[in-house]
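in:
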């Protein structure tokens, strides 16, 4: 039993290590991570491919990976390029240069360098990998070093890049290596897989997918990205809390405040892949997604439609400085409450608005559109002051659908009472409190004008 418990303890620790929310949180337990991008800038990378060139796709995939790694304090990135300094006829098999040194938060430097590179030379892959040993330096073993080779073709200088990668691994210079192919034929995959785990981009519309897979593999963790989609199915919605519940126990496991990084990509989070989740996105009204499974060994992308716009109740007229309480309903169900002149963010859809004026104003079928502010305007109320000669029992009524509807019941213990009423015609029906004869009932009609004040005497 003792040995079994120790085994279980170590097993649990291994799983828990995979679930740390950020590499920076366990810097003392793991070595810092360095990622070297070795990018092919040989002449063939200028070839037209899909909507642009192979080199454009190479830049795009590096950009997406570096954007995701850029905010991690425990990750350094560097860039080596080959085939960009000498034209192809020169057959320069030493055309390789470390263009961006290892540093944290240097995605901009890597992307800026790639933007000014023009492919023109040959393909010295083995030489470039050999030179990367010096890039990692004499203290290479103090880091977890990863090479990401991005190329569209084979070694052209007669050397064997697979042997170089093997030596680097055996010497402890690198811990992992990956190859991202640009339009490689399936029959040629084996020529690249010996240099590292191979991922191919068969067309430029799959760049994001391959980048996501590469990120997950580089970080050796189960990362998840939640794409909150707008009305055009683009992941632009953000700044909302998400709660992940364990479907089995019903208990909340994670709360994250959704954000989009400076590159315009939703930030990634880490979830336990051993659980199945119910996801609640705390929009107004909330959005739910049931039975979300997380697959290990890849970047999981959860997509949920949550297009949002704004709804605001405005009061016309400069004389009214107060705030009116408003209730937003959808399909007869209360969604939220808000005050006037304050925009409320809501899911795109149709709402009924109940404005708690006297009398209550109800506006049906108000449409909220993507990224737009829909404004519902009502007139400013007027003010009426009831001056009572004696304490009264009574109420204020309005005509609606050929019937009298009570708007407000007067206070029978005040001789003076001021109310804010919406513009319109009203009738007050009352009786002096100490007169017990129903024939003492009196009626008085008056009209409210927006922004105006008036006195009504009750005798």
């Amino acid at each position: 039993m003792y040995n079994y418990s120790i085994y279980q303890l170590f097993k649990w620790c291994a799983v828990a290590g995979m679930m740390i929310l950020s590499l920076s949180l366990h810097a003392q337990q793991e070595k810092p991570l360095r990622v070297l991008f070795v990018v092919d800038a040989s002449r063939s990378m200028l070839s037209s491919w899909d909507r642009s060139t192979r080199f454009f796709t190479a830049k795009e995939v590096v950009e997406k990976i570096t954007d995701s790694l850029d905010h991690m304090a425990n990750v350094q990135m560097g860039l080596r390029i080959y085939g960009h300094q000498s034209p192809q006829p020169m057959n320069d098999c030493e055309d390789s240069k470390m263009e961006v040194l290892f540093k944290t938060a240097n995605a901009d430097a890597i992307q800026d360098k790639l933007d000014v590179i023009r492919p023109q030379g040959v393909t010295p892959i083995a030489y470039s990998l050999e030179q990367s040993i010096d890039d990692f330096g004499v203290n290479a073993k103090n880091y977890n070093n990863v090479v990401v080779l991005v190329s569209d073709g084979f070694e052209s200088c007669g050397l064997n890049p697979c042997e170089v990668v093997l030596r680097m691994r055996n010497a402890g210079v690198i811990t992992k290596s990956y190859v991202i192919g640009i339009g490689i034929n399936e029959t040629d995959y084996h020529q690249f897989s010996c240099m590292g785990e191979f991922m191919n981009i068969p067309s430029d519309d799959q760049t994001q997918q391959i980048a996501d897979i590469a990120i997950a593999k580089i970080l050796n963790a189960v990362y998840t990205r939640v794409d909150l989609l707008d009305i055009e199915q683009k992941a632009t919605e953000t700044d909302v809390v998400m709660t992940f519940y364990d479907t089995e126990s019903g208990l909340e496991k994670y709360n994250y405040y959704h954000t989009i990084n400076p590159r315009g990509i939703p930030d990634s989070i880490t979830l336990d892949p051993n659980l199945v989740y119910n996801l609640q996105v705390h929009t107004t009204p909330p959005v739910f997604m049931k039975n979300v499974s997380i697959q290990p060994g890849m970047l999981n992308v959860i997509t949920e439609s949550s297009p949002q716009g704004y709804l605001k109740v405005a009061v016309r007229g400069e004389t009214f400085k107060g705030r009116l309480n408003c209730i937003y309903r959808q399909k007869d169900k209360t969604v939220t409450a808000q005050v006037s002149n304050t925009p409320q963010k809501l899911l795109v859809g149709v709402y009924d608005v109940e404005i708690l004026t006297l009398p209550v104003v109800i506006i049906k079928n108000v449409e909220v559109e993507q990224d737009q502010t829909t404004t519902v305007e009502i007139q400013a109320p007027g003010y009426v002051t009831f001056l009572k000669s004696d304490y009264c029992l009574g109420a204020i009524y309005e005509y609606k659908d050929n019937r009298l509807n009570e708007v407000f019941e007067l206070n029978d213990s005040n001789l003076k009472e001021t109310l804010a009423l919406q513009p319109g015609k009203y009738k007050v029906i009352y009786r002096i409190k100490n007169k017990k004869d129903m024939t003492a009932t009196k009626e008085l009609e008056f009209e409210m004008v927006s922004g105006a004040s008036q006195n009504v005497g009750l005798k």
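note: Helices lie at 2-18, 54-69, 107-115, 125-136, 161-170, 190-193, 207-219.
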